[in-house]
TrEMBL record:
Ranges that cross the membrane: none
Ranges where the record places region Disordered: 551-581
Domain of life assignment: Eukaryota
Name of the protein in question: Amidase domain-containing protein
InterPro entries on file: Amidase, Amidase_dom, AS_sf
Gene3D superfamilies: Amidase signature (AS) domain
Gene Ontology MF terms: glutaminyl-tRNA synthase (glutamine-hydrolyzing) activity
Record-annotated Amidase domain positions: 175-356
Family matches, as SUPFAM superfamilies: Amidase signature (AS) enzymes (SSF75304)
């Protein structure tokens, strides 16, 4: 990136170069013949124009940056050094001229994409990103699926317990709703997990649930149960901010499909919960959401609010795209399902990609003793032992596929290009300049602007090849592996493979205080199933949790320990999860 002072220096150098040409022209005029008189007049005109340009450039340059002032004075009185200075001046100007010509050429090229709204520094940033990230992925995809012409190949448990209490009238929905609203308001100051409360709506829905029950109408296990919606899901008359400063006052009078389904099942909406800004990580316009199990670290995202609220016992709801469920679920130690793509309707939900956005779905049971489960090298072996004790056939397993650009296909092509298509005006109008974390979406979406349509299609073809290879490699009914391994996260999203994250234990935090602390680092694993076999992953998770209690543990947000306290601000910071390897 070129600094402001360097930019001014280069402009001054350009003006000085023009002035050298003019001075040389004057010195080359000898005897005043008619032709030479014409040349003399023209040279004088060029000299004064260049002089004015140089003076203006120097005038706009701060005194400390006037690197060419002495050169200017010497050019007015050149003596015997004109020819030498002209030659040296050309050499000295090459670097600056080259930089500016490069930017000019690139801006000229962007004009043909209708994208000539970036300033010089952003263009240089885009060049760096394209060189380091885009081009290697383009080459890998072309080698994989575009080496032959013609395109003939590679075408492109708490809810049940609460529900029972409500059904047997041991507690009313209105009482339960007030309990959760109170907890949300009490702990949100520490967690920064709530965008807005829907208290009036919640009490109205809770009363309706109680009235139905009095009339003998029971809508199912979600009847009267409070929950929170991630703030990328629209609810009429309430803000849907997408976690972004740009949209923090946005109200969408659209009933999201998933909200309609939950409402028809009798569930009670108590709050809109934090999404990282534009569904990226845990930073949002109101702060940064924290992990209840270790309040000094952040939750990751983008389902930051739902994960933190669930972990603290505040009843949330989440969505998935490139780790938006799996990462915060693993960090905060909660059970979470990323279902097969297309299982749940997405109307009224902010979209990053037309083919990568997921929402949780309903559950059902299956006989696990008749199935075979594989386990990868990074699987939590406690899960393997527990499932084996439940009669499940456990075997070592490895996924086989030849596509070596899995992360690049998701990161630098499909996800970023699809996202840019949804926020095109946001970028064009410069609103990305006020985004909460400049190293996240703004950086990636400028790079995405330089992805050609042909390479986008090649990425889709590589994705098709990957899907076929994974299906052929899936020789077990499910497999167990690390849920937060970035390669697997990308793989699951590209293939549409369901995964459920389950807590499997706890370990001590890094650098604990000298006294005792109750803060912990959660340990989780993922149970993966083939597309459209979500029920199998759920069945194995339920089998594991039927004889373990890790998922029932609650974080120490009221009492960190006898000698533990969190400094404000925290001394430990965790950088946001990057959307590339």
């Amino acid at each position: 990136m070129v600094s402001g002072s360097n930019t001014r220096n280069c402009k001054s150098a350009t003006a000085a170069s023009e002035l050298r040409h003019a001075v040389a022209m004057l010195h080359n005029v000898s005897q005043p013949t008619p032709l030479r008189w014409t040349r003399l007049v023209f040279s004088i005109f060029v000299f004064y124009a260049a002089s004015l340009r140089s003076v203006l450039a120097l005038h706009r340059t701060p005194p400390a940056d006037r690197l060419f002032a002495r050169s200017f004075r010497e050019m007015v009185n050149p003596g015997n050094t004109v020819r030498d200075r002209r030659e040296n001046g050309f050499k000295n100007d090459i670097a600056c001229s080259k930089k500016f010509s490069e930017v000019s050429l690139l801006k000229g090229g962007l004009k043909f994409f209708g994208a000539n709204f970036f300033n010089d520094s952003k263009v240089r940033e885009m060049v760096k990103g394209a060189t380091e990230f885009n081009i290697p992925i383009f080459k890998a995809n072309r080698k994989l699926v575009a080496s032959v012409n013609g395109g003939l190949h590679d075408s492109s448990v708490l809810i049940l317990e609460l529900g029972q209490l409500i059904r047997t009238k041991q507690i009313t929905s209105q009482e339960l709703t007030r309990i959760f609203l109170k907890r949300l308001k009490r702990y949100n100051r520490a967690l920064e997990a709530v965008v807005c409360y829907t208290e009036d709506l919640a009490l109205k829905q809770a009363k309706k649930a109680d009235d139905f029950l009095d009339q003998g109408i029971y809508l199912g296990p979600l009847h009267g149960i409070p929950y929170g919606l991630k703030d990328i899901i629209s609810v009429p008359q309430y803000k849907t901010t997408w976690g972004s400063k740009t949209f923090q006052n946005q109200v969408l009078n659209i009933e999201a499909w998933v909200y309609k389904r939950l409402r028809s099942a009798g569930a009670v909406l108590v709050a809109k919960l934090v999404s990282g800004s534009l569904a990226y990580d845990d930073i949002w316009f109101g702060g940064r959401t924290r992990n209840p199990w270790n309040i000094e670290e952040f939750s990751t995202g983008s389902s930051a609010g739902p994960a933190a609220s669930t972990s603290a016992g505040l009843v949330p709801f989440g969505s998935e795209m490139a780790g938006s469920i799996t990462y915060p679920a693993a960090r905060c130690g909660v059970t979470a399902l990323c279902p097969t793509f297309g299982t749940v309707g997405r109307t009224g939900v902010m979209s990053i990609s037309e083919s990568l956005r997921y929402l949780p779905q309903d559950t059902f049971l299956i006989d696990t003793t008749k199935l075979t489960v594989g386990y990868l090298e990074d699987a939590e072996m406690e899960v393997v032992r527990v499932l084996a004790s439940k009669g499940v056939n456990m075997v070592p397993f490895k996924l086989n596929y030849t596509v070596d650009s899995v992360q690049g296909i998701l990161n630098f092509t499909l996800m970023d290009v699809d996202m840019l298509a949804h926020v095109d005006e946001w970028q064009r109008s410069g609103q990305d300049d006020v985004y909460e974390a400049q190293e996240q979406w703004p950086l990636e979406l400028r790079r995405a602007r330089m992805i050609p349509a042909v390479d986008y299609v090649q990425a889709q073809r590589a994705r098709g090849k990957l899907i076929r290879e994974i299906r052929e490699s899936f020789t077990v009914n499910a497999f167990i592996g690390n849920a937060t391994d970035w390669e697997k996260v990308c793989l699951g999203n590209l293939v549409g493979m369901p995964v459920i994250v389950v807590p499997t234990g706890f370990s001590n935090i890094s650098n604990p205080p000298s006294g005792a602390t109750w803060r912990r680092t959660t340990i989780t694993t993922g149970i993966y199933a083939p597309p459209d076999h979500d029920h199998i992953a759920l069945a194995f998770a339920m089998a594991y949790q039927s004889i373990t209690n890790h998922h029932k543990q609650r974080p120490p947000i009221d009492n960190l320990g006898p000698n533990d306290s969190i400094p404000n601000p925290p001394t430990v910071t965790y950088p946001p999860r990057r959307m590339h390897p």
